[in-house]
Amino acid sequence: MALSRFRRDSGMNYWPGFVDALSTLVLSVIFLLTVFMVAQFFLSQEVAGKDTALARLNAQIARLSQLLSLEQTGKASLQDEVATLRASLTTAESERDRLRAATSQSPAAAAGAGGNDKLNTQLDLEKAATARAVAQIENLNEQIGALRRQIAALEEALGASEKKESASQLRIADLGQRLNVALAQRVQELSRYRSDFFGTLRGILGDRPDIRIVGDRFVFQSEVFFDSGAATLRPDGRAELDKLAGAVIALEKQIPSDINWVLRVDGHTDIRPLAATSPFKSNWDLSAARAISVVQYLISKGVSPARLAAAGFGEFQPIDPGTSEQALAHNRRIELKLTER
Q: Torsion-angle region of residue 206: left (phi > 0), alpha (psi -120 to 50) or beta?
């Protein structure tokens, strides 16, 4: 009997440390995943806004490029027309010079003066048309220059937007890294206080088979506090909670105020239905009422309400899948969990 008790005691001494290390690792992984998801959410929001702005700028540049292409096409057409007019003008001027030379050499050619006047009129018309075409080309050159300046401004704005987006991504990555470091430190601190708290509770409550540590929770069998099917604390259960209240009050003084923590009290039942005369509608109601009874009693003993939370889980989270009387007793429990709020 003494050897058996020694082995059990030895197991209880090593188990909390292993559980604390494992729970710390799990909390760290969960925390990192949470930060990653938050960072991804904010990054996707900012990138979505940047993509919309970039798409709008690209569309505007495409429209301006199309207008520039049309203007350049029109300019080329006018240049061809001007070249044609200039060729005609050159031909007409040559013809005029030829006629003038012929007229000056032979007085008899004076009769051709009427034809020379017509030729001059045609030359004047062609000169006017050429002048109008040149004016249109100059106007098009001014429009093309304005379009090119506008496109350059848009491209500059687009480059600035891309640089801003890159800087924002760097800031988000830096913020995520700093959050990871800060929150990891908080998780480590809370894990240390949880380990100390459980050690203190173990020393206060003693080595009882109906009180044990499971993972990151301190587990009491429901029979420690309540009669079967009831949510009213038994006198001996209040005595145990008096010890617990003292430990929680001492813990409040130890944990820094910037660590946002709560002691969560979870109620659980077995799978057996309640009696027809029970004042509770379901096991869920019973588990929640028991958790609330524990929280209210701790508050009456001086524990801050801001550091307590009550939750009921009914029969839906058993720790023993069996249906034996021992398994059912394991599942009827009150759990204490020191966690972040």
A: left
Q: How far apart are CA 18 and CA 26, in angstroms?
A: 12
Higher pLDDT, 330 or 39: 330
If we measure between CA atoms, which residue out of 192, 193, 184, 265 comes closest to residue 231? 265
Domain definitions of the chain by residue range: 44-185, 208-340
Letter string b/e over residues 275-308, b meaning 16 or more CB atoms within 10 A of that residue's CB: eeeeebeebbbbbbbbbbbbbebbeeeebeeebb
**Which CATH superfamily, name and number, covers 208-340?**
OmpA-like domain (3.30.1330.60)
Find the mean pLDDT for residues 133-146.
74
Is pLDDT of 33 > 50? yes
**The two three-digit tokens of residue 239, written as one number:** 């005595």
pTM: 0.48
Classify strands 261-268 and 308-312 as parallel, antiparallel or unpaired: parallel
Query: Residue type at 145?
Result: G
CB 70 within 8 A of CB 83: no
Asked if residues 128 and 166 have their Cβ atoms less than 8 Å apart, the reply is: no
3 state DSSP class of 106: coil
Residue 325 has pLDDT above 80, yes or no: yes
Q: Does 18 score more than 70 pLDDT?
A: no
CB contact at 8 A, 64 and 154: yes
